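Sequence in, structure out.
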Amino acid sequence: MGRLQELEALGQAIWLDFLDRALVREGGLKRLVEEDGLTGVTSNPSIFEKAMGHGTGYDDSLAAFDSSHPDAHVIERYEALAIEDIRAAADILRPAYDRLDGKDGFVSLEVSPYIADDADATIAEAARLWAAVDRPNLMIKIPGTDAGVPAIAASVAAGININVTLLFSIPAYIKVAEAHVAGLEQRVARGEPIDRISSVASFFVSRIDTRIDKAIDALGTDEAKALRGKVAIANAKMAYQWHLDFLKSDRWQALAARGARPQRLLWASTGTKDPAYPDVLYVDTLIGPDTINTMPPGTMDAFRDHGTPRVTLADDVEGARHVLAEADRLGLDLDDVTATLLQEGVIAFAKSFDELLASIAAKHPAAH
């Protein structure tokens, strides 16, 4: 059994934070499913910009779409390509979805980053994309913004699987976890089933250390330097502790009795940014049951080669609490860092979407 498969045996699902047409069509994704136990794929505007915006892999599909839809808007042209990839990935993951009785085997497609602060538009787009892809093992990605919270509740209530993205802070995570529950409760109140609805909360990790470590270096003290590379992991561990406590609550237990599935925590941004740290730092330290680690290809390769598969997520919880308390005492202002990272994440996805749409527009016959 390989190291990635050992993670599955420990209860942690492995997802790939990457998608492109070559991976789907040339058998790479199928091999990851069969050989490494991969049970999910995530996409976002930055990933699609890299996939579609460069090279010629999508040109034939785009030309075919343009010939039958000559007046289509550039966003419709993008969606036609994205939906093809998402459906194909969902079909490759479908055996895992069936084997696991619908508990995993998902592929995620994100709503437009342009509507991150518009709850009504997000609700409408989530429903439209859900219907357009038409696969039970799809998750619609909604950002964990203030506007995203009611959109999550409404989408879950509509029976849509949701991947909440761009979560950096524990308070923001708690809001979306409660939104997920509120959506399930709406379904119960209407007498609708809740046993086949799945959700994940994508909690970003390495970006926090990248930002906090700069503040630590600016302070330059030994007590500050002792926190380098530890704040993001501590933040994630305390989020997991909240999750475990919430599962014991009367509110959750009432839903669990009706077959509800917990919203799993998914560790995102797990590629190591600082070369001073081990390349599997954000995998080795966050292994725990009923969680997910979505890894970029390089991190997946590194863990397959030299990762350490053992449960670590509940290790030294008091130490994690101390790290966060020290960060607060030293004025590192984790709340401000996480709020800024959320805002920057939305802007970065919108910028990638701009670039993606521009590259697709440039390939329209009318542009030549």
